[in-house]
Amino acid sequence: MKILTRRDSLALIVGLSFMGGACRTAQPLSTPLQSAAAVPAKPVTAPNQGSIVAVMSRVADWQLANPSRHQLWAWHQAPFWASLHALAPLSEDRAKYLNAIAQTGESNEWNHGPDKFHADHQAITQAYFLLAKDRKDPRMTAKALALFDEMKSMPFAEPLVFDQKKTSREWVWCDALFMAPPAMALAASATGDRTYADLMHRLWWKTTDYLYDPAEHLYYRDSRYFDQREPNGAKVFWSRGNGWVIAGVARVLMYLPPDYPERPRYVALFKDMAAKIAKIQQPNGYWGVSLLSPETFPSPETSGTAFFTYALAWGVNEGLLDRAANLPVILRGWAALNRAVHADGKLGFVQPVGAAPGATGPDQTEIYGTGAFILAGSEVHRLVTGPSRP
After folding, report:
1. How far is Cα 308 from Cα 245, in angstroms, rounded to an integer?
2. Helix (H) or strand (E) segment spanning residue 212
3. Is residue 298 part of a domain?
4. Where are the alpha helices (DSSP H) in the chain?
């Protein structure tokens, strides 16, 4: 009797979930971009670990060779530098990627952005905490810890009202749940001081009470969308906005102390969102830019798709989500993302900077999309190779 390998088991689960369809091999990474929106007629198979690392490296190397125009401390950059930390242990050139993070940190003087209380200006510190753990260098996190120490004494009693013209000390937009909370959870992990997690917890649930729709299991981007509707009558839920959130929940849970008393509340939220996200994936593997009205902008979109693929794969790897139910969703998402990669490693179909659903195109890219892609690859790689984190 043949003993099934882990790869055989993955392929079997995918095949069983697509009863009636014949298996085929995954498309090569050089598949032309014009096929990015093509609907797979048959199930995709589990990729091998070499192909995953190869495309992650190709995308990372393209981004390093084509630096983002955004400030080095800006939120746009944060997912990419954090993703290099996930790529490094999988790569044969670990030092290259870790040194790239270090070079950016030195250029930033290991600082957050100038509007220090704004969550977007704190996101870059995630990479600092990750690298500091490897290199045992307290300089890398000193300024972030000083900021969070200052924030611990702040009341955060102001009402949550979105005002685009004003900076905010509170998290009145859903993207913020990716930007600051994982950094605060990392601060708690790095120092053993749970008051950093308490700060995060206080702000997280105030924002969630404000922006989360428990009936739809999704977050509004901000209060401007509470009463807006799509042409089909659906509420407006932005793909990348919800991608920011569910990836943020996953990253908080990665670093939050395992025995933190409120941890089960984050697990419940993660499962609640994940169940909804898995149900609304499009047949082509992407998620609609407007999640409940994919026909509004029918082109592929990779930043939201990458964050969803990342979070769902992480949830399966951690035993929080059912493998058989979610594996086909994850592999469709990963295959779709691969179809959007140019031959030179540029990731296309990334929705530009915005706050609402919008159109994309094959040549549109942004560094946060690249980071999300690499993060997704790191968890898909773990899904294929085993449960242990590098």
Report:
1. 10
2. strand 212-213
3. yes
4. 6-17, 49-65, 78-87, 94-107, 125-135, 139-152, 176-179, 181-191, 195-211, 239-255, 263-279, 302-317, 323-339, 367-385
Summarised one tens digit per residue, pLDDT across range 3-13 is: 334 444 444 44
What is the rounded distance in angstroms from the CA atom of residue 134 to the CA atom of residue 128?
10
Six-digit token pair at 19?
């009863």
| Overall size of the chain counted in residues | 390
Say how many C-beta atoms besides its own lie within 10 A of residue 49's C-beta. Answer: 17
Mind telling me the catalytic residues? 175
For 163, the token pair is: 């005002």
Tokens 């082509």 appear where? Answer: 284
Both structure tokens of 261: 């008393």
What pTM was estimated for this model as a whole? 0.92
In angstroms, the first-to-last Cα distance of the chain is 33
What is the rounded CA–CA span in Å between residue 44 and residue 12?
A: 11
Number of compact structural domains in the chain: 1
Question: Is residue 112 situated within a structural domain?
Answer: yes
Residue 160, amino acid:
L
User: Would residue 1 count as lying in a domain?
Assistant: no
Pick the more confident residue, 221 or 30.
Answer: 221
What CATH number is given to the structural domain containing 68?
A: 1.50.10.10
Structure tokens of 329? 């969703």
Measured CA to CA, the distance from residue 379 to residue 360 in angstroms comes to 25
Other CB atoms within 10 Å distance of the CB of residue 261: 11
| pLDDT tier at 168, thresholds 50, 70, 90 | confident
Query: Which among 169, 150, 243 is positioned nearest to 207, based on CA atoms?
Result: 169
Q: Tell me which residue range forms the domain holding 177.
A: 6-385
Residue type present at position 261 = P
In a domain, 88, yes or no: yes
Give the closest residue to 112 by CA, choosing from 62, 149, 162. Answer: 149
What's the token pair of residue 256?
A: 């939050």
**Low-confidence winner among 38-42, 121-125, 204-208, 322-326 (lowest mean pLDDT):** 38-42
Please tell me the distance from the alpha carbon of residue 38 to that of residue 252, in angstroms, as a whole number: 34
